[in-house]
Amino acid sequence: GETRCRYRGAAAINASLAVALGVRFPLSFYNLPGVGWFQDRLYDLVAANRHRLPGDMPYCKAHPEECD
Description:
Layout: H1 9-21, H2 25-30, H3 35-48, H4 59-62
């Protein structure tokens, strides 16, 4: 059968990279002592401040003069 795993946050990013690249390295790296913890804290920081990052507002709403 097919094995299915669920990942959240930084682990999901690592899992996506592993699938996209066809290698296990991103998940293996995430599982190294301290690495997963650090990536999770960084993910939490980005998630908490995502509203301050570019791309939060659709381009045409931010620049209506450039859209039809």
